[in-house]
Amino acid sequence: DMKLFDKIALLQALFVGGFGLLMTLFYIGFEQFEIKDYLFPTGIMIYIYIRNADFKGENEKDVSTAGDGEYFLEEEQRTTEAPPLDKLVVISGNKVELGKDMVLILAWATWCGHSKKAMIPWNRIVELYAHRGVKVVAITRQSPDEVQEFLLKLPRKLKYTIASDSTDVLDRLQGAFGLRRLPHAFLADGRGQVAWHGHPAHAGNALSEILDGESEDGDER
């Protein structure tokens, strides 16, 4: 479901558009002002509203997926192939390819507070598993400019690839499991098949269980 009305964005649009209207009146003069002169400030208001409005539906709000559980898939159950990552716009880090090494994927968004909480701890996953060939990539639907601005505000630099998805990678990946909430993690095996998906906080344990057959706590799977 899409939300068509955003009060904050509307106020921003009215403020900017109203300012533009006043400036137009100031330069043209009230007596010379015509109906067509409304077009420019009106266009500005529409642009500001569309650019800033939050059109996310209820299922894509800033909600933790901790209660959604996690799902291990045995090799014979791995029938969902992760979509190719070659068309992603890499903003930070190296390009990641499927079908060779294990790839841990984070679906996230700049507006999602839980995404921000999940991202810095994933540096530890890189430290623990990069030498074993595990690649890590965080993918968002936000534009590269928005992501760059977000990354500059983080207290620490991320040690893995950050990419923007302007195609359908996240739609296909989330849609395969009926998921829309963010953040969410997916683990693709060396054949490019999804071997696990769940909350990002559980990704380290999932990697350990799949690679070593036991969790990071030392419990048998």
From TrEMBL:
Phylogenetic placement of the source organism: Eukaryota, Sar, Stramenopiles, Ochrophyta, Raphidophyceae
Residues annotated as domain Thioredoxin: 76-216
Transmembrane segments: 9-30
Protein name (database record): Thioredoxin domain-containing protein
Superkingdom of source: Eukaryota
PANTHER family reported for this sequence: CHROMOSOME UNDETERMINED SCAFFOLD_47, WHOLE GENOME SHOTGUN SEQUENCE, THIOL:DISULFIDE INTERCHANGE PROTEIN DSBE
One Pfam family here: AhpC-TSA
One term of GO molecular function: antioxidant activity
Presence of the UniProt keyword Membrane in the record: yes
Organism, as annotated: Heterosigma akashiwo
